[in-house]
Fold this protein.
Amino acid sequence: MSAQAPHWFESITTHGPRLWQRFWSRSNERVGYLFILPSLIHMAVFLLIPLVFSLVLSFTNWQGVTFQGLEWVGLDNYDFLMGDRRFWNAMGNSAKYTLMAVPLGMLVSLAIAVVLNQKLKGVYLFRTLFFMPVISSWVAVAVIWVTLLDPTSGIVNYLLDLIGLPPVNFLGDPNTALPALVMIAVWKGAGFQMVIWLAGLQAIPEALYDAAAIDGASWWQSFRNVTLPLLAPTTFFLAVTGVIGSFQVFTSVYVMTKGGPLGSTDVVVHRIYQRAFQNFDMGYASAQSWVLFGIIFAATLLQLWVNRRRGQEILF
Amino acid sequence: MEQDRHEYHVAYVGADTPARRLLRLLGYAVLVLVTIVMVVPFIWMVSTSLKPPGSEFAWPPELFPREIYFGNYTELFTLLPFGQYFVNTAFITVATLVGQLIICSMAAYGFARLHFIGRDTIFIFYLATMMIPFQVTLIPLFLIVNNLGWVNTYVGLIVPGISSVFGIFLLRQSFLSVPEDYRDAARVEGANEFRIYAQIFMPLNGPALATLAVFSFMGTWTDLLWPLLIARDQPMRTLELGLAYYSLRPNAYVQPNWPLLMAGAVIVMTPVLIVYFFAQRYFIAGISLSGVKG
């Protein structure tokens, strides 16, 4: 506001200092720095410094008690990580979890959104109900599902019993624990994805469906050739956020399985947590978190690239 | 010609043919089925929390309790300081929310309305940081907070959360839609930028601020990972953390007390559900925005 033009400029401007001053204060309203300052400080202290610090830590053998004995070990952590079977087991679990949870969650939520988009009565009520799991706390959800999936007294096994299937110890069997976590995550996240699909569906002009109908397209044909292509940006968004979110799963694992049984649900963030805050192996855990970051980053770039090649307009 | 097309349109799209009625019926069937899957766990939560001890493992499982028993709630409050947890959670949530509303709205005003050198570069940089997973910064963040002596304090639980790029982004979108004339008019009247921000932009953007408030509330209330690291001692714990600790059995031979766990879940969930039912408009709006804008 009170910015002064440089003195040398006054002599060369023919419009006089006042006009220049107004132009100058409009083009560089330095009070703006004051407005963003709190957030900038916050970001520096709680994001940027930790980020750099974390990268530095990943090259040390720091054990996280005092800074004594801190040693620069170069790429040793990353070298060790390459052959760390527990870490790659966790990575594999996260990848499996992602490959199951993302497509399944997107399909289920798209199906619900398409039905809700048919202008049925009471849509508002259904949307409200379907959204309840989304806003629920993970711990509460975990506690509820542990009882629902209980092998001896849970409702799910009761339903299996009704149709003549043997009981399944969902969270206690290494073969079913991870799929069970995926199921719960899909249950919890479907409402969120549904809302985003709905926003995408409602942005498609009605006229396109009319045109397709006049051309004699069946419901499936117009879905396949009108709806899906026009939903591409939404699909992209849900896929990217889905992959990022799935690789970051922690709370459900921590509360429901603690990574067990037999390490079958030991996902990568749980592994990092164990290393850093149970074993206090902070240097090595930092290296693990950077590998996770790299994978999330690569997944994002890959999807960005695929979409560019398909010529989609992306708002990223 | 125009008339013909219109009639054709109505005949084709609007008619209530048997096929359409069947399709609609099918739609409702799907919705009812999904509703059951989505809602039964919550009914189960409430009903189990009201079951008298010993009746929770009935076979077949009872979706509704035979008699209603409130003793689980009183037992939970005597077993664990759930009242204290509740106060902690409420305080942390409200403080974080207020911080976010102030810091994010200020930054949003700067990014949306003030022209200063490097503004757009800084904003793009802000957006880019949204890609960084929390886990990467978690360890050093904990070390910093630890070195500041903030472990086991409210400050340590609140301050790292009082600003968010998502909030800035959300409010900036809204601030951009306020006509520039408002600001010019206020300037002519002699208002400085802080007055314009506080007395024009804040009141005009109530819905966006409400959206951010709801998101912040939900996020803080249901967070587990950060309180798990910071709230080490019993008196600092949040509801979420208290319930998580209570749900973790020391070993496989200890029977879980389902009614107590469910009572805890009900206590954690109730405020969130209340806020959601009253503010869902803002919540849905925020999610749609994040989806549409990436």
